[in-house]
């Protein structure tokens, strides 16, 4: 039986061509550390790392390469932002569509006296934009929002929310785990102060490397989550005052950065065509699943295909979603993700708690034929109960 990978929202697969080779080349031919060795290969490797930072800065509209901090992933970047910024007595605004990578750090902070306020969302997971301003009270320190939900695929209007935050001097933090490399992001134009993303999803890079991109004012306000060696100003027991060193302690994941660099080079040449293809695949998957709504299925999320990513979650109305996902895999080779997707409040908002949903998510290398095959399989399962 053929296997069809439709879990790109969890991690993209396959990766961009050249990623594995770049990682192997680093390990087999370079090997040395950067900022800690006075020899040519270390300087060359440091130059490559700087180029990857600059490439990310261009892609994300960040203020510059030095404002790009490497982390182990989006979860780490979000913890860094929230725990580095918020103090007891601060107020933070967020949405119920967030991933636990936001909600769990916030819950920890709430125990320390941080107040959390949730923005209202509709039952299709869309932000009630006209109500956002009412929540941005004078004592609000920051607003943290996902760019797109990993459950419903619904895209949030970042530029509009960013403008509201900027006008009030509120730091705007964005979780771009589902969109970096897939949808255009421009920190400057969207008023984003802190952007968290993983290398292993839409950027088509390896696991274990993530990014935190920051404006200078947020970088100044952030307390380092982790401190330690940077290879610079070692005589001081304080972290260096300049970026990226101020916020980046310890040896970096150099194989990961070299792999991510290869992915970014691929995206720089192929990105526009890949994005367009993924947009068409996303629309196709959504339209095919929507055809089945009258047969006992509910498709979660926005009804406007222009405001969706390539994530389509479905709720079998007359069957157990877990059993259906299991059968899709066992009988059709369809690899999906069932459950609550680390986003319990999103499922509550969408009316799919506690049963969860079966999530299909495309990547740029998915084919239209695979999506038609997936729809046919879902249809067959529905017809068993509803002939
Ligand atoms: N935010 C969202 C919206 C996500 O989908 C994910 C990954 N599922 C994360 C954050 C966390 O990313 P990572 O596991 O790569 O740290």
Automatic annotation (TrEMBL):
Cited SUPFAM superfamilies: PLP-dependent transferases
The name on file for this protein is: cysteine desulfurase
Keyword Transferase present in the record's keywords: the answer is yes
Instruction: Give its E.C. classification number.
Output: 2.8.1.7
Q: Name the lineage.
A: Bacteria, Bacillati, Bacillota, Clostridia, Eubacteriales
**Keyword Signal assigned:** no
Which cofactors must be present for this protein to function? pyridoxal 5'-phosphate
Q: What class of enzyme is it?
A: transferase
